[in-house]
Each structure stands twice: as structure tokens, then as C-alpha cells.
Write a structure and sequence with these properties.
The complex is a heterodimer of chains A (398) and B (255).
Chain A: E1 2-7, H1 34-53, E2 57-60, H2 74-84, E3 90-95, H3 103-116, E4 121-126, H4 133-136, H5 143-159, E5 165-168, E6 173-177, E7 191-194, H6 198-207, E8 210-214, H7 219-234, E9 241-242, E10 246-254, H8 258-268, H9 270-273, H10 279-282, H11 290-297, H12 314-320, E11 323-326, H13 328-342, E12 347-353, H14 359-380, E13 386-387, H15 390-397
Parallel strand pairs in A: 1-2, 1-12, 2-3, 3-4, 4-7, 7-8, 8-10, 10-11, 10-12
Antiparallel strand pairs in A: 5-6, 9-13
Chain B: E1 2-6, E2 9-16, E3 21-25, H1 38-42, E4 46-50, H2 67-80, E5 86-91, H3 93-104, E6 109-115, H4 138-145, H5 149-152, H6 161-178, E7 199-204, H7 212-219, E8 225-230, H8 237-240, H9 242-254
Parallel strand pairs in B: 3-4, 3-5, 5-6, 6-7, 7-8
Antiparallel strand pairs in B: 1-2, 2-4
Helix pairs in contact in B: 2-3
């Protein structure tokens, strides 16, 4: 098992939630104080580096026009971390390539960070959440097709070393592609793709890329991982799916006492409870299938909401499998239960900072996880085992 | 409605009435033969009304992603139906399609009716000509669409399955077609000089999407166009005030 400290570099100093209709897309940036923002960047970078000192890897992501994640150009933050960190793997999860106009530029940025970091990059690619559509002015229809064409082009740009090649696809067109530098890692850095749909996961599995899923709890995660394993096997990659191909992201807080853990966990919920987004931003046309919109129109619960209602409390989130929080023993038991339910994964992405979880408490959570939980996870779930072996899982659970 | 095949598009097509041919090009809400203007127009003309690719039951091929693509499909439709000359009525994005067709084959268009049309950029760069209906709650969109939303907004909870499917499918296709540049082609305004036939640009007085200023600026791009306002109607005067709409159109086409 490999663990990653993930921070969204949030800007939490906001007016009362009922004073604005959306925390994303339309929240005026006059609310953002650059001096406070600069201090936050310093702090969040420090926390990533403390995680590195504790043996945890570094993960970051990208969102736009939002206070929840003030990292609209994640490759820039990645470049800073490439020079400030020394040994941690650097995961960007990821590049929203269906929303980027030039996949070749993304290939260049990633190759450059790979060289800057002396080969520590893990390059992730995401379709992007629906509220990224308007900031990117990106057409929400046929995003998936654009995503895969862009990714194929990026891989080709990374792996082609004999002078310019051309690409004339459905969505992207380049006459002369010949990126400098090329990647430090050969043939290219590990590729991650996040998806929350089974169709998407099957496709990721067929490509053999690392599949990450965020806050999808017990049953949805199992469905996604099952689909990945199916795609992997059907593509002829063999029966055993290496466990490091699967990653799960949860809100995680470990405290040395139950009271401390509970207090930290409550603050982490900011990530869920601050995500106030109206339907016209969370459900642009074409983002979800017509059938799902029909359910909505017929009065179904908001099926396009990122979070279920019960995930808004610590107990509810733990029960849903979107949060692991408590003392080291409690957190270990929660992760084991989830791990076995979904068939196993080799990467755990720790949403370990949110909102008003202050620096000292964030560091406490990182250290408690790294020192009291992580060693046991590595021993229980070594990176060499296959994923999805039900019998093995049951035996281990017993 | 019957289906005909044009290129690789399975196109749903309605035809009713007799007389000189009129091509009706619907807006984003789609077309059904039950719409209230169909009977009065069919009483005087041969009405030809396709569902655009991706709307109604018409298929949407993978390659198709622009209003101009649809205009080309309809050029082939005119050839297949052997329509040497005809009148065209286009509503909203249907007006945009009509304008694209007219710039390509101006000699085939006898008279042109544009109803709350989009398709050109006439105002300043720092303000959308057409409000962004995808960046506001549906209740706000309804206020822009209708003079009387309470009477006009469909109830999605009780709407038949088929109509609801068409509604969401049409919404998705609309986004595909008009997303960028928003609701216009940068080329169209420079081609409209070719459309010399008599043209009537009309809008509902309460249309919150197509302003009076926009309509006038659009009409001014054609050498022989005039404007008309229909009272107590929004963006879809043909649905909200069908009698006034039909009589205005029939008078214009008969002139």
C-alpha cells in the first residue's frame, strides 16, 4: 500500500454560505485576499513537505473559479514541489485534458516536471467535474471522446523520439509534434485516470492505467473496481490485476485520542459541506446521460450531486466509506473493512486537509497516519499482491 | 412523422397541407405536429418540418457538431424534395440554420421569416448578445423564454416519456451546437449580404433572449429585411400567440 497526502489548497475565509448562491464558478474573487492566499500557499506546501518527511507521497489536483481548490494551474504548483521536495513521488490528479485546448502543451508540462523532479512524476488525467465546464468554456458534450483522444496524443508525444510527427484526429490537430524535453522516466511516467463510472473504469482497465476513484464509498467503489478488473482481463492483460493499479481517495483523519480524531474529522467535513453548487453548474447539458436527467425530472433525489446527504456527518461519512477517522486502530479497521469490500487497492489518497483544519491539526493527522497506521497497511497489503482475488481477501479478513 | 435518410442522418420529417412549400425550422424546444401554428400554416401551404439532427427522433451522427452541418443536410433535403424555390421560417437556432441555408442558395429562398433568431454577434465583446441560459436556474430561463411562464412551462413530472426524452436530448444537442462561439457564427454576418429576398424578422415583445436591439441589428445585415413585434409573447411567439403568429406570417408570405 502506498499513501498520498492530498490537499486541495482551499481558501476557507468566506462570507456566510447563505450570502452566495455557489462556492464555485460565480463566487466573486474580491472575496480572495491575496495576502492571506499567499500565506495559505506557504502553509499547504509546508504540509506536503512534512508528509514527504514522514514517508508519504505528494498529491495535488486542479480546479477553476472556486474557493474549494485554489490551484487552477496545478502544473505550476507541481513545478514548485518538484524543486522543494526531494524524494516523494509527485502525483497530479489531474490534468483536465478534455478542457485543455492543447494536449501537446500538457505533454510538455508533464515532461518538464518529470525532468525537474528527476523522474518522480505520476501523471494523472481527469475528465473533470461538471462545474469545470463553464470556467474552461468547454463543451460538455463528447468530453469523454476528447479526453481519450487527448490522452492517446499525449502518450504518443511522450514516446516518440525521432523528430516531428503529425496528428490529425477528431478533435485535435497538430502538424509538427516533437516535444523537448522528453520524459525523465522511460517510456513515460505512470499514468493515472480518475473516473466514477463503470464504463470509464473498464476503459482505464483496458489501457492498464492506474484507476483512482474519489469518495465513492463501499458499493460504488466495488462496482468501479470490478469494471476496471473486467476491462483489464478482457484486454488480455492477464487474470491478476496488480493491486497498485487501483487507488481510493477518502477523507482521512487519525488522532491520538478519539476526541482529537473526532474534532479533526468534523473539520474535514468542510470539504463536503462547503460544496454549495446549484444544479445549473453541477449538471450542464450532456454531462450525464439523458436517462439520468429523466430520473431527476421525475423527482428522483439529486443523482448528480457529488455527495450523498448522510456524508455530511462524521458517523454518516464513516458508515458510507467516504471517511476513515478515529484512533489508529479504528482507522485501520475502517480501511481494512473497505479494502476487503471493494476487492483491494494499492494506493490510498488521503484528503487530509480541508477548510479550517489548522496547520498543527493537519500535521498531527499526517504524522499519526504515517507513524501508527501506514506501517501496518504496508504489511497487510503489500504492493505485490493482485487485486480482486475474493478468496484471498476473505481469508485475510478472517 | 416519417423518417428519411440524408447522408448518414435518419431525419424525422413532418409534411402537411398543400400549396407553395414552406420549410419550418424549429428552435431548441423541437417540433411536433400538434403545435398550434401547424394547422393554420398547413391550411395555406405545403408545410415541411424536419426535426434537426439530435432533436426529436432524428439521429445525431458522431461527426455532426455545428449549425452549418445541419444547413448542409437541409440543402440535400431541398434537392431530394425537388424544391426549386420555397419560403423558410426559422425559429431561434432554426433561424440561424435558415440564414446559413439562405447565404448558400439565395436564389432558392423566396421569402424568409426569422422568429427570435440567433446566429450573429452584433454587440460588444464584453457582453453576451444572447444571455447564457446554461449559467442560470431553469426558473430564470423560463422567465426569458415566455411572456407567461405559469401558462407555458411544461410539467416535467407528468410529461410523456417520449417528450421528456426529446427535451433532454434536444438540450444536449443545443449545447453541442451553440457552446462556442456562444449562439453565433463569426462568419455568418459577413455572408448575409447575399440574402436579397424579402425577409421578416420578428420577436415576441417579452423575449428575454433576443432583444429588440439584437433583432434590428441582425435584420440590418440583410438588404431587404424588416422587423415586427408580437405582443404578449416571449421567445416562442409561434407557441405562445399562435394566431397572431400565423396571421403575420401568412400575410407576409402572401404579399
Amino acid at each position: 500500500m502506498r499513501a498520498w497526502h492530498f490537499s486541495e489548497t482551499a481558501y476557507p475565509y468566506l462570507p456566510p454560505q447563505d450570502s452566495y448562491p455557489s462556492i464555485r464558478v460565480s463566487l466573486p474573487n474580491r472575496i480572495y485576499d491575496p495576502a492571506k492566499g499567499a500565506a495559505l500557499y506557504d502553509r499547504y506546501i509546508d504540509e506536503w513537505l512534512i508528509a514527504e518527511d514522514e514517508g508519504v507521497e505528494i498529491m495535488l489536483n486542479e480546479h477553476h473559479q472556486t474557493a474549494t481548490c485554489v490551484d487552477p494551474a496545478a502544473p505550476l504548483m507541481l513545478a514548485a514541489l518538484a524543486r522543494l521536495s526531494k524524494k516523494a513521488r509527485l502525483l497530479i490528479l489531474g490534468n483536465p485534458i478534455a478542457n485543455r485546448r492543447q494536449p501537446v502543451r500538457v505533454a510538455e508540462e508533464m515532461a518538464m516536471v518529470d525532468v525537474l523532479s528527476h523522474g518522480r512524476l505520476e501523471a494523472g488525467f481527469v475528465r473533470g467535474v461538471p462545474y469545470e465546464i463553464l470556467p474552461a468554456n468547454s463543451n460538455p458534450v463528447r468530453m469523454n471522446e476528447r479526453h481519450w483522444e487527448a490522452l492517446d496524443l499525449i502518450v504518443k508525444a511522450w514516446t516518440h523520439h525521432d523528430g516531428p510527427f503529425s496528428f490529425e484526429g477528431r478533435f485535435f490537430h497538430h502538424r509538427s509534434i516533437n516535444i523537448w524535453p522528453r520524459c525523465y522516466q522511460q517510456p513515460h511516467p505512470p499514468i493515472w485516470v480518475s473516473t466514477t463510472s463503470t464504463g470509464g473504469a473498464q476503459q482505464v482497465g483496458a489501457h492498464g492505467y492506474i484507476q483512482a476513484t474519489f469518495l465513492t464509498g463501499f458499493d460504488t467503489t466495488k462496482r468501479i473496481f470490478d469494471a476496471y478488473r473486467k476491462g483489464w482481463r478482457e484486454a488480455g492483460r492477464g487474470n491478476d490485476v496488480p493491486i497498485d493499479r487501483l487507488a481510493y481517495a477518502a477523507l482521512i483523519y487519525v488522532g491520538d485520542t478519539e476526541a482529537k480524531a473526532r474534532a479533526g474529522a468534523e473539520k474535514l467535513l468542510w470539504y463536503v459541506n462547503s460544496n454549495k453548487v446549484p444544479l445549473h453548474f453541477s449538471n450542464p447539458p450532456g454531462y450525464v446521460p439523458v436517462a439520468m436527467n429523466m430520473q431527476l425530472a421525475r423527482g428522483a433525489h439529486n443523482v448528480v450531486s457529488a455527495f450523498g446527504t448522510k456524508q455530511g456527518t462524521v458517523d454518516g461519512a464513516i458508515e458510507a466509506g467516504t471517511m476513515f477517522a478515529g484512533t489508529p486502530d479504528q482507522v485501520l479497521a475502517q480501511i481494512k473493512k473497505h479494502w476487503h469490500h471493494v476487492g483491494g487497492y494499492g494506493q490510498i489518497l488521503i484528503m487530509g486537509q480541508a477548510g479550517f483544519l489548522e496547520h498543527d491539526d493537519t500535521v498531527h493527522g499526517i504524522r499519526m497516519f504515517a507513524r501508527e497506521v501506514y506501517p501496518q497497511l504496508k504489511e497487510l497489503f503489500p504492493g505485490t499482491m493482485p487485486s480482486g482475488v475474493t478468496e484471498t481477501s476473505k481469508a485475510a479478513a478472517g | 412523422m416519417k423518417t428519411i435518410k440524408i447522408a448518414d442522418v435518419e431525419l424525422e420529417l413532418h409534411e402537411s397541407g398543400q400549396g407553395s412549400p414552406v420549410l419550418f425550422l424549429h428552435g431548441a424546444g423541437g417540433f411536433t405536429p400538434q403545435q398550434p401554428f401547424v394547422a393554420p400554416l398547413s391550411a395555406k401551404h405545403r408545410l415541411i418540418a424536419p426535426s434537426h439532427p439530435g432533436f426529436g427522433k432524428s439521429s445525431l451522427p458522431e461527426w455532426l457538431d455545428s449549425i452549418d452541418d445541419i444547413a448542409h443536410i437541409y440543402l440535400e433535403l431541398l434537392s431530394m424534395l425537388d424544391l426549386k424555390q420555397l419560403d423558410i421560417i426559422g425559429c431561434s437556432i432554426g433561424g440561424w440554420i435558415a440564414a446559413e441555408i439562405a447565404t448558400k442558395v439565395p436564389e432558392r429562398v423566396r421569402r424568409l421569416v426569422m422568429v427570435g433568431p440567433v446566429g450573429v454577434k452584433t454587440g460588444s465583446a464584453d457582453k453576451l448578445d444572447i444571455p447564457d441560459i446554461f449559467a442560470m436556474p431553469q426558473t430564470d430561463v423560463d422567465k426569458l423564454l415566455y411572456h407567461d411562464p405559469a401558462r407555458m412551462v411544461p410539467d416535467t413530472k407528468t410529461m410523456p416519456e417520449e417528450a421528456l426524452t426529446a427535451m433532454f436530448r434536444g438540450r444536449e444537442t443545443l449545447a453541442l451546437l451553440v457552446w462556442e462561439p456562444w449562439m453565433h457564427s463569426t462568419k455568418l454576418k459577413h455572408r448575409l449580404y447575399r440574402v436579397k429576398c424579402p425577409a421578416l424578422f420578428m420577436r415576441g415583445a417579452s423575449d428575454g433572449l433576443v432583444s429588440e436591439r439584437y433583432l434590428k441589428a441582425y435584420a440590418a445585415l440583410l438588404p431587404n429585411a424588416r422587423t415586427h413585434t408580437i405582443p404578449a409573447a416571449g421567445h416562442v411567439p409561434h407557441l405562445e400567440q399562435p394566431e397572431a403568429f400565423a396571421s403575420t406570417v401568412l400575410n407576409f408570405l402572401a404579399a
